[in-house]
Design goal:
The complex is a heterotrimer of chains A (about 290), B (about 525) and C (about 300). Chain B has about 525 residues and is α+β, with helices and mostly antiparallel strands. In chain B, about 30% of the residues lie in helices and about 20% in strands. Chain B is globular, with a radius of gyration of 26 Å. Chain C is mostly helical. Chain C has two domains: about 70 residues, no CATH class; about 210 residues, Orthogonal Bundle (MetI-like fold). The chains are: A mainly alpha (about 290), B alpha+beta (about 525), C mainly alpha (about 300).
């Protein structure tokens, strides 16, 4: 069945309308959205929520300590407050989820539209490039990139963006191919509207619902990738806190100080779960045909 | 549907039961088997090509002399393949008597020409371990290709030979105990292609032969029935490669390892778990060597001896030892580590006095916070080391010295250090053999040596004396000279900030009756020193 | 169909070359001197020079690339600096372990995933359905290392049912890593099975079968599952890539000498030939797996068969 395509995003895809439908159809997704907002606020307000610094050694005598009033999740192997590091780690994890995903969205969407709309050689080159990127097991590709660039948050952004743009490009291209055949694009073409304008004015806006869904679903996978890299000891520079890195170092103390690794693990799980539920809900509302992809 | 669920449950239970096998006390483990773990695999069994992991070479080869750890923890050099030696009066020529009746594990007999071959091979194979044979007369010529044989080495007969040094060196016999001086068989070497890489090609006289090596997985040593010495209690050693420290830790606790080297385990776990739950299972050996704080005398501020003295005073090493190493480290005062011949017990550490350091800086004309330099961290170093960096940073800041930690990956770190332009760093040196020359000459032997360690020590006269000290044949005189030089460098010139030496702990499993850790700075040990129950 | 497959194979070759080029390029822009790191503290300049020459690092870039490509096609992936062995030899000892792990994990994923998917589809919109789908989303969201860590702690350390390290433990050692690795895939397979099954269950022939009086379970297994299995096969190929990614973690936690751990060891030792070889090899496996799945798909699916 041909999907009915609307000319502008606002119709039925407006923020309010989406929220309303989401609330009506999938309350869990709304709670997840709230959870994400809470995490984001906690990350942003980290300095207000904790008196310590993320790399501040707060213990006097011995480093590892069990949860207490002063340190709700205890202190880690270096004597830093785990709760504080969890908050600051949320910054890294959310940034690592969002920034590379935005980059890969922009790059992927542009290349996908160009490939789909222009076709020919541009299409072949872009899609073969995407095929090459998609052929790599993502973890190994990210490892190689991190190895080459060295640790650092900017490098993680780059690595994850490089890993993820190709799948976006593929989906946007498929969407573009469909849109290209629609009457109003044909019409726009026949009255001599430039290619660039058609792409930006007519095709891109219609891809946005799918892009939003992809965005919410790619964020958790980026967070998981970063945490896996952190778990292997690659990724951000110490002594910055990232959840994956916290699990990596905390794992040794699992049977004496379980919070060191379980708290960041649980945080990763919660955030990823929340994004996944939200993504699922948004997909049902915005873009039902994506469901089986 | 119920049937399916019942089936799944049944399968899970069968799997669970099938898996219930291992017993914690290890009563189901093959008798005579020792199970240990290593954090990474070795690159070669040939000591000419590696300075890194000596577990296999130490156990399958013998050296002319060995270091024996005495009951009181002191060490003594004893004959191994060499029974005895004589020194000429000028201290240049050593005459050795080789043990008779020793055969390699393939049956070939040990002769003086094998020793000669070993020396010549270290020089000509382009390896990385040629320090010791380079001291022999004519070694340079052989190495450069100007000679075909090692002029200073004379084979008298099958079991007697003499070595003439280019310059007197009182530490020579001690150096012969290093793993690099493992004796190989000349005849075998002529026949095999993959010495050091293939088990059957790697033949020695030691108590074990290597029978299996699955790269990056495990290697197996088995008792050499042709071994000349006493039959060891351990008949077979399996060294599994377990890069993950938590896995090693859990394996030991579940009885899957017989000896655990606690160096790979974080010291907080050692303190919380091993020192409480397994306290009676721990044995310690001192890790002979030291962690030091190197200051670059070419730095704008560090070139001033007052600044260096202030740095020495600003560091509270006892705090580091208790908080990072849970007390398992010993503060060091000089350059020659505790336990090494020539260590000066009377030398005192610079006193910890942050206010004094501040005052000294003010007196030297620096404004508050003016003195600043970088403390460069190798990001691949252990969490303990990284913690030491952070504590040192805080302590220096408390004394008004403005340091910033700069993190570099391992190869960039090495590049920068070797270029001589690293402001300061904290690193560890472990002794290769029991002689002060090993550390004194390496760091302060000449301008090049102090340059590649980014020390850039400026006192030419002291460096010349360090280089000459190894030639002093009288032991007492040589020791006095080293101690005086040590004092000049550490106290007068404040060119070296000694921190601490580590205590090296091992946890023994239920199956192990006793184990004497080896003397040296590295983790590897002799399996023949282990007694199983 | 045949032309389709040939076209696909040609495309694959193109991708292979691209992948090889990309890996090569990525690994040549590395800071620091790899040889210095490798040889550690006690290097002498001659040894460094010799190693540089041995590895061809002193040659111009294009010569290095030519040597590398030639090697790739003759199966010579170079020599690992840190382990002193040919990279192909190292891969051939470690890859079988990864294959064992991946097969075991795939079994776990499919058995659990398909069974849960069927149950959920049958009990559509019931409590079990919601529960299973919630759990499956949890399955997708839990990091592999967390599952691995918790399993190792509970079943191997606390209960001692399984060995901590899988290396020398035979097949028993593969149970925990397989569950940890299969966990994520089980979630997505369950979701996919459910949705395809629901689609198929609406088709006419299912109604016919039901009308004939066959039992529900029989109808599902005999008729519906057969048609629902196609998308799941495609998913297998996609999962191969994520299985290999997850294997890196599982092999590290459970100490399995597989290709993922080899890659991690290569990174730690800054061993370029080894890293290059392991990544290239894993990628080739994924590409070939995808190719196979495509071919299988076109053979199995009558609709595609007719189209061509």
């Amino acid at each position: 069945m041909e999907k009915k395509i609307k000319n502008t995003v606002e119709d039925g895809h407006g923020f309010r309308s989406v929220c309303y439908r989401l609330w009506k159809e999938n309350k869990v997704a709304v709670f997840c959205a709230l959870l994400i907002v809470i995490f984001a606020l906690a990350a942003i307000c980290a300095p207000l929520l904790t008196p310590y610094g993320y790399d501040e050694i707060v213990t006097d005598t011995y480093r590892l300590s069990q949860p207490s009033l002063a340190h709700p999740l205890g202190t880690d192997e270096v004597g830093r407050d785990v709760f504080t590091r969890l908050l600051y780690g949320a910054r890294i994890s959310l940034m690592v989820g969002i920034v590379p995903t935005i980059i890969s969205m922009i790059v992927g969407a542009l290349l996908g539209i160009i490939a789909g709309f222009v076709g020919g050689k541009a299409d072949a080159v872009i899609m073969r490039l995407a095929d090459i990127m998609l052929a790599f097991p993502s973890m190994l590709l990210a490892m190689v990139i991190m190895y080459t660039l060295g640790d650092g948050i900017i490098n993680i952004f780059l690595a994850l963006a490089l890993v993820n743009w190709a799948s976006v490009a593929r989906i946007v291209r498929a969407e573009t191919l469909k849109l290209k055949e629609t009457e109003y694009v044909e019409a726009a073409r026949s009255i001599g509207v430039s290619k660039w304008k058609i792409m930006m004015r007519h095709i891109l806006p219609n891809c946005i619902p799918s892009l939003i869904v992809l965005f919410t679903l790619n964020i958790p996978s980026a967070i998981l990738s970063e945490s896996a890299l952190g778990f292997l000891g690659l990724g951000i520079e110490k002594p910055m806190a990232s959840w994956g890195l916290m699990v990596n170092t905390g794992r040794q103390y699992l049977y004496t100080n379980p919070w060191l690794s379980l708290a960041p693990s649980a945080a990763i799980m919660l955030v990823v779960l929340a994004f996944n539920f939200l993504g699922d809900g948004l997909r049902d509302v915005l873009d039902p045909h994506l469901k089986n992809q | 549907m119920k049937k399916i669920i019942a089936l799944i449950l049944a399968v899970v239970m069968v799997l669970g039961l099938a898996a219930c096998g291992g017993k914690k006390d290890g009563s189901d483990v093959e008798a005579g088997l020792l199970r240990v773990a290593a954090s990474y695999d070795i690159s070669t069994m040939d000591v000419a090509q590696t300075t890194d992991n000596y577990m296999i070479p130490m156990n399958i080869f013998d050296r002319l002399f060995e270091v024996e750890v005495q009951a009181d923890g002191s060490t003594e050099i004893v004959g191994s393949l060499a029974l005895d030696y004589d020194t000429s009066s000028d201290g240049l020529t050593y005459t050795f008597v080789l043990r008779e009746g020793v055969v390699f594990s393939n049956g070939s007999a040990l002769t003086a020409s094998d020793v000669q071959y070993t020396f010549e091979r270290l020089l000509t194979a382009g390896g990385v371990n040629d320090d010791v044979p380079l001291e022999v007369a004519g070694a340079e010529a052989l190495k450069n290709g100007e000679a075909d044989t090692l002029a200073g080495f004379t084979v008298i007969d099958d079991h007697n030979f003499s070595i003439t040094l280019a310059a007197p060196n009182a530490g020579f016999i001690a150096e012969l105990t290093g793993p690099a001086m493992s004796i190989v068989d000349k005849e075998t070497m002529a026949e095999v292609d993959n010495f050091g890489l293939e088990c059957e090609d790697t033949i020695g006289t030691g108590p074990y032969v290597v029978t299996e090596w699955v790269v990056n997985d495990h290697y197996t040593l088995e008792y050499n029935t042709k071994y000349w010495g006493e039959e060891p209690s351990v008949k077979k050693v399996i060294v599994s490669i377990i890069p993950d420290p938590s896995t090693q830790n859990l394996m030991y606790q579940n009885g899957e390892l017989d000896i655990l080297d606690l160096e790979s385990i974080d010291s907080a776990i050692v303190a919380n778990t091993y020192k409480t739950k397994y306290a009676d299972k721990l044995v310690s050996g001192s890790r002979v060597g030291m962690t030091y704080f190197a200051l670059n005398a070419n730095n704008e501020y560090l070139s001033d001896v007052n600044v260096r003295k202030a740095v020495q005073m600003a560091i509270d090493v006892d705090y580091i030892i208790t908080s990072v190493y849970a007390g398992d480290a010993v503060a060091q005062a000089g350059i020659i580590p505790d336990g090494v011949w020539g260590d000066n017990a009377d030398l005192a550490r610079p006193t910890y006095d942050p206010e004094g350091a501040k005052a000294l800086l003010t007196e030297a004309g620096y404004a508050e916070g003016e003195v600043q330099f970088e403390l460069v961290l190798d990001t691949s170093s252990s969490s303990n080391t990284q913690l030491v960096y952070q504590i040192v940073e805080q302590q220096l800041k408390a004394a008004g010295i403005n340091v910033t930690i700069r993190s570099l990956d391992e190869s960039s770190w090495l590049d920068l250090r070797k270029s001589g332009e690293m402001d300061s760093f904290i690193a560890n040196w472990t002794m290769d053999y029991n002689d002060p020359a090993n550390i004194m000459f390496t760091f302060f032997g000449n301008a090049e040596k102090t340059g590649i360690r980014s020390l850039n020590y400026a006192n030419e006269e002291v460096m010349a004396r360090v280089a000459a000290a190894s030639g002093i044949t009288d032991d007492a005189e040589r020791m006095a000279e080293y101690q005086e030089l040590e004092k000049i460098i550490v106290v007068d010139d404040a060119a070296w900030v000694p921190l601490f030496g580590n205590v090296h702990l091992f946890a023994l499993g239920e199956r192990v009756a006793s184990f004497v850790p080896y003397w040296a700075g590295y983790s590897n040990f002799y399996a023949k020193d282990v007694t199983l129950k | 169909m045949v032309t389709n497959i040939v076209k696909r194979i040609l495309q694959t070759v193109l991708i292979l070359i691209g992948v090889a080029l990309l890996i090569f390029l990525m690994l040549r822009i590395i800071p620091g001197n790899a040889i210095l790191t490798m040889m550690g503290d006690k290097t002498n300049p001659e040894a460094v020079e010799r190693m540089t020459a041995e590895l061809g690092l002193d040659k111009p870039f294009y010569v290095q690339f030519w040597m590398y490509i030639k090697g790739v096609f003759t199966g010579d992936l170079g020599t690992s600096y840190s382990l002193n062995r040919s990279v192909s030899e190292l891969i051939s000892t470690s890859f079988p372990n990864t294959v064992k792990l991946a097969i075991a994990a795939a079994l776990v994923a499919w058995i659990v995933g398909i069974i849960c998917g069927i149950i959920a589809a049958v009990k559509k919109n019931g409590i079990i359905d919601h529960l299973f789908m919630g759990v499956s989303l949890l399955g997708v969201s839990v990091p592999v290392f967390m599952v691995a860590m918790v399993l190792q702690y509970l079943l191997a350390y606390k209960l001692q049912w399984f060995p901590i390290s899988s290396g020398n433990a035979g097949w028993v050692g593969y149970i925990l890593p397989a569950i940890a690795l299969g966990w994520n895939s089980a979630g997505s397979i369950a979701r996919l099975t459910r949705s395809t099954l629901l689609e198929v269950l609406q088709e006419d022939y299912i109604d016919t079968a039901r009308a004939k009086g066959y039992r529900q379970l029989y109808v599902i297994i005999r008729h519906a599952l057969r048609n629902a299995v196609l998308p799941v096969i495609t998913m297998m190929a996609v999962q191969l890539s994520s299985l290999l990614s997850g294997a890196v973690i599982c092999e590290t936690v459970f100490s399995i000498n597989g290709i993922g751990r080899l890659a991690v060891a290569a990174i730690e030792a800054r061993d370029i030939p080894l890293l290059q070889g392991t990544v290239l090899f894993s990628t080739v496996i994924v590409i070939l797996g995808n190719l196979l799945a495509d071919c299988l798909y076109s053979v199995l699916d009558p609709r595609i068969r007719k189209e061509v």
